[in-house]
């Protein structure tokens, strides 16, 4: 397997070398050696960095992502947390669709006053419901 130095990994992964050093410090990735002063990584590090990017995009913290990677190289997938994140993303998507529709309506509405437009009022009502904090049941 071809070894890559930290600069090549950083370029291919789209992150700064300092990010890679930090990820190594917290145990997300591991270098396999050094060539002079430059850390060397195997090709699998790019897959792992892709998983880290996916986890970050999903809203997981680096601590949570670190816990997913076991020392033996396997993944310990928190399936319930993944389902909860997927549900959260669905809610965000619904809210963004409402926002998109409201913005398009405002841009295209021919009414002399948006506040008198029934469609705009309906969109506002829907948008305000979508942005209200959810009540968590007690108990």
Automatic annotation (TrEMBL):
Residue runs in coiled coils: none
PROSITE patterns named among the record's database cross-references: HTH_MERR_2 (PS50937)
Report the domain of life of the source organism.
Bacteria
Q: Which Pfam families match?
A: MerR (PF00376), MerR-DNA-bind (PF09278)
Q: Which intervals hold domain HTH merR-type?
A: 3-71
Query: Which keywords describe this protein according to UniProt?
Result: DNA-binding, Transcription, Transcription regulation
CDD domains xrefs: HTH_MerR-like_sg6
Q: Which InterPro entries match?
A: DNA-bd_dom_put_sf, MerR-type_HTH_dom, MerR_fam, Tscrpt_reg_MerR_DNA-bd
**What name does this protein carry?**
Helix-turn-helix domain-containing protein
Q: Which organism is it from?
A: Aquamicrobium soli
């Amino acid at each position: 397997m071809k070894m890559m130095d930290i600069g090549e990994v950083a370029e291919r992964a789209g992150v700064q070398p300092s990010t890679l050093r930090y990820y190594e410090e917290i145990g997300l990735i591991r270098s396999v050696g050094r060539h002079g002063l430059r850390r060397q990584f195997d090709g699998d590090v790019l897959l792992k960095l892709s998983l880290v990017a996916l986890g970050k995009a999903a809203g997981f913290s680096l601590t949570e992502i670190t816990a997913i990677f076991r020392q033996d190289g396997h993944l310990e997938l928190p399936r319930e947390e993944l389902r909860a994140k997927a549900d959260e993303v669905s809610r965000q998507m619904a809210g963004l669709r409402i926002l998109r529709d409201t913005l398009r309506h405002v841009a295209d509405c021919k009414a002399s006053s948006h506040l008198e437009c029934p469609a705009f009022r309906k969109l506002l009502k829907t948008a305000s419901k979508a942005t209200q904090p959810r009540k968590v049941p007690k108990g």
